[in-house]
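1st attempt posting a full record on here, be nice pls
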Amino acid sequence: MSKEHILLIEDEPDIQELIRVNLVRQGFRLSIYKSGEEGIPAIKAQQPKLILLDLMLPGIDGLEVCRILKNGTVTNQIPIIMVTAKGEDVDMVTGLELGADDYLTKPFSPRVLIAKIRALLRRRNSEQLSDEPSVTAHELEIHPGRFEVIADGRHFDLSLTEFRLLHFLAKNPGWVYSRYQIVSGVRGDDIVVTDRSVDVHVVGLRKKLGKYGDYIETVRGVGYRFRR
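the predicted structure (as tokens):
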């Protein structure tokens, strides 16, 4: 049975208990913190396998917590699932732009929560054991085994989803992929991702890559490709 460590930042006792009961029942080890001020130091010290992050928090809000974690060299590769309320679409999109890996809207089904957690952990574990060869595309060097993207001696800090998206496209430069194909190739068929989520991750990836982001081209009405 799984013993992966999940860390939850959530201030609502009812949601805390709902998540605690269901994750413990599935064999996960769960740590709970009610604010970003408490959660951020704990994440740095404990290095959990995955973070569940409520966006509406007292003090530092969830978006700022996400920004801090994704900009930290010790924490930027830990997957984050945002927990949002209905009507917070703008915050959800912003969170994905900051590097969050998935989201869950309240009220949610515990089965959906567990499925999303397991899918992200499977993807992370498979990536950590990846023996795929490195890809060199233009000036970019993409190393799957080390999660490194380097160009002209500069290292780029990408989220897991951004890294997988870049690697997926760069392996076959010139080929055009629909959003559905990208979802299947990057995140797997068992995670629900909207077309807009793919677009948001592409925007975030382009921003982080700077001038090298121009290599990711939009093909109107179809999807995306990496420039040949």
